[in-house]
Each structure stands twice: as structure tokens, then as C-alpha cells.
Amino acid sequence: MKRLDRYIFFRLFTITFLVLFLLTCIFILIDFSENSDDFADQGATLSQVWGDYYVNYIPEMVRLVSPVAIFVACLFLTGQMTERFELTAIKASGISLYRIAVPYLLFGVLLAGTISYLDAWIIPGSNAERLAFQREYLDKGSSDRIDRGGIYRQESNNAIFNISHYDASSNIGYRFNMVEFDDQKNVKRTVTANRLDWVDSLGTWKADRYQERIFSEGAYVDTTSRNEILNLNVLPRDLARTTSDIYQLTYAEALNYVESIRRVGAGEINLPLVQLYGRFTYPISILVVSLIGFSLASERRKGGKGFFITAGLAISFIYLAMMKVIEPFGAAGAIDPVYAAALPHLIFLTLGAVLFLLARK
Fold this sequence. Notes:
Layout: H1 2-41, H2 46-83, H3 86-92, H4 97-100, H5 102-137, E1 151-156, E2 159-167, E3 172-181, E4 187-199, E5 204-216, E6 219-230, H6 251-264, H7 270-281, H8 284-297, H9 305-332, H10 337-358
Antiparallel strand pairs: 1-2, 2-3, 3-4, 4-5, 5-6
Helix pairs in contact: 1-2, 1-5, 2-5, 2-8, 2-9, 5-8, 7-9, 7-10, 8-10, 9-10
């Protein structure tokens, strides 16, 4: 049985790697054919296109197509063993279908763990570099910014501020206004500035044409300054949020990012939550499709390989489509973000379990 386990494991590895390579190559060719004119028009060199864009795109491609690759591998290998009556002979020798499924599930766990590790530490950095290139050469004139108009944030429990316009490329905010209240909700202090500049070396903000008014009983004290260091409990990333922020952060950074959104009172928190939970749960899809693929192909069916290919493409498409269709409902708050991220996996895990239980033992 150990020899059979090794055979199944390494065959799955070989087929999955081959499918990953082919799908990645197809993905790159299609993307390049669609964007080659834009690359040329925007002045990107070939070394920049391949070195800064596609090299950094490959880890994300691998993450996206891994469930499809292992699904194809499970269907192909198990279907081949079924067509050759190898699976029948193994079961006739007294080995149950549950035991035969062990190397499939072990390989699924290994691949899921690898994808989870890449998604936690490697892919975010690659995504950040790729998206920076994409904004410069492909998405000029468009923006994935969440806050497009005036920005309102909560600096503390008793203070709120707004910035009329924020330039994310230079970390400069224009027309800053802050109001601080006392415990009785009376205005205690106001601060205005013509411009806010983020000083990276100091990790704080510098206010240009700063004006502060501190109110007391029937009077106020007015202070003005040309330049003033302003300690705000807000970072540049809190003012320049985009729909792709979560995908550029490690798991720890993403959790801190979500917490910072709550802290500053910014809206649209459901979208990053759904994206973050989606990243956490995505590796589960690898285990789910491994179970479904093995269960489907463990019996001889009319149509042979044609049935497996059709079923594989259909299930993969419906699975991925369901993840994308449910995500907007979670982002809009119609569904809890956790449920929006987990529901497709739970549905197809149930389907895989039913197919596995109904398969001939």
C-alpha cells in the first residue's frame, strides 16, 4: 500500500505541476495579446513587462488556477485507473475506497498549505509590484480608489476630521479640518490646515498654514503657524484605500489594516473583510475539488474521459463563479462577510461528501 501511495502521490504531483505550467502559459499569452498595444503605447520596455509585471503575476496565477489544476489531476489519474480496472483490482484485494483516497487528500493538504503560505508571505509583495506597474502602464485614467470625494475619519473617540482631497501618490492632503469635542459633546478645539504632508522619516504629518482654536467659557485662544507637526492617529494608507489593498498585504498586515479601518471609523469595511476571509478560506477549495474529482472518477461512466473533462470544467466554472457572485453580497452587507467567504466551500464540500459516500466501495 505504501508503494501505491507513493505512486498516486507523485503522479498527482506531476500532473498538477504540468497543468499549472500549461494554464499559466495560456494565461500569460492571453493577457499579453490583450495588453501588448497598451504596453507599447505607454512606453513600457519588454524587460519591464516581463520582469516587473509577468514575473510578479505568476504567483497570483498559480494561486488562482491551483484548484483547477489539482481537480484535473484527480480526474485524469483516477479516471485512468478506473478505465484500466486498476481501481477495481485494488478494491478486490480488500483495500477500501476510503484508504485509496488517503494519498489524494494528503496531496490536497500539502498543496493547500503551500498556497496558503504563498498567499500569506510571497504573493502580497508580488501583487504590490504588479499593481504598481499596472497603474502606471495599463490603468491610466482609471482608479480603484474607494474614497473618491471628501474623506471623513475619526481621529479619536472625541475627534473627527475631513480632507477635501488626498493625493495618494505623494501622500499629501488638501484643506484639512478637525473638530474635537469634550465629554458633553461641546466643541473643545478646532484645527485647520491648507495642506498636510506625510513625513516618512518622522512617521507623522506636517501641516502647512496651521490654525488651532481652543475654546473655553465664552472665549477661545487662536494659534497660527506656517508649519506645524501634527500628530494624528491616522496613517497614509487609511486615507488612500483601494479595492485591492487586502491582496497586497500579508495576513498579519491585513488584519491590522482591517483593525485600522474600524479605528478611524472609515466606511466600506465589509469589502476588505470579505476579501480577507476569502483569502483565508481559498485553500479549502483545493481539498474540496480533490474530494469531488476522486469521487467522480472512481466509477466507470458513459462518455469516459469526455464526461470527466465536461464535468471538471462545469464544476470548476460553477465553483469559481459562485465565489465571485456571493462576494458582492458580503461587501454590501447583505450577507455576513464570514458566510460570504465560506458558503461556496461549504456547498461544494457537502457535494463532495455526498459523491464520496455514494461511490462504490
